[in-house]
Input
Amino acid sequence: MPEGHTIYRLAARHQAMFAGEKVLASSPQGRFAEGAALLSGAVLDRTEAYGKHLLHHYDGGQALHVHLGLYGKFADGDGEPPAPVGQVRLRLTTDLHWLDLRGPTACELLSPPEVEALQARLGADPLRADADPDEAYARIRRSPTPLFALLLDQSIVAGTGLIFVTEVLFRAGLRPTTPGRELSPEGWRKIWADLVELMGTAVGTGQIDTVYDRHLPEAMGRPPRIDRHGGEVYVYRRAAQPCHVCGAGILRADLAGRNSYWCPTCQPARRARSRPKRQKR
DNA sequence: TCATTATGTAAAA
DNA sequence: TTTACCTAATGAT
Output
């Protein structure tokens, strides 16, 4: 259940395990039997993460493309692999290491043009040096769609998931429903810089931490949060709990088919306007 | 032991 | 906008 930083860590891990090695591939579950047969015996050149997509580039030009989706998972180890338990879509082995993949949304072999097409449909990835945040902002600023949905749209920003988007909107003081066209250039600069920083840190630590030092449990005298993803956050999955900054109850609502969370005080509905409310009727 | 939930996406309607 | 995907962890019973 990954956001972009998880895929970057997997890419680095798989590269360390298998790069330069001849890899044996199989599909104990059977659903990737054909692809595994084609792949088996190839030498891994390098791995790459692009957004939430993982690529293994093999000699001969073919690439293994994996997208974990909501519940895909990798497991790995040294030496002899264990007998497959459950639905193992793909198993890779060398003399030294083994790797199992379960439950992915995508596990397929791609030709070089197909890899290009994949990358062409992805937006700016905050973890990549070749990202173009200006292009992303050009899409955002002309859209009436809520920022929450725009920042989750992988064709605009790649690698962002629910936690990063939810938290970055809190840090920017913007409600998730704010239309893209209301995002100022300064607002976008703040959001992009936050994504680069927070996602970069998460690649190093393996968890998502979004809370400024001054609001950490030690600084505030509150108990630390133990959550599945392991990090300290402001609003993600904190519905009805007090805001770390102002104490107001965190709110939750369905938005674009996902759970969105925000603080009613720290993320005001909109800028205070001098224009009086229009009277109906 | 069963039901629900989950850091996601694509296809169907 | 809704449904399906199809795994594992968590929470309820």
In short: Chain A has two domains: 4-120, 133-262. The longest helix of chain A spans residues 185-205. Residues 1-3, 6, 52, 67-72, 105-106, 152, 154, 161-164, 208, 228-229, 236, 258-259 of chain A lie near DNA strand B (CB under 10 Å from a C1').
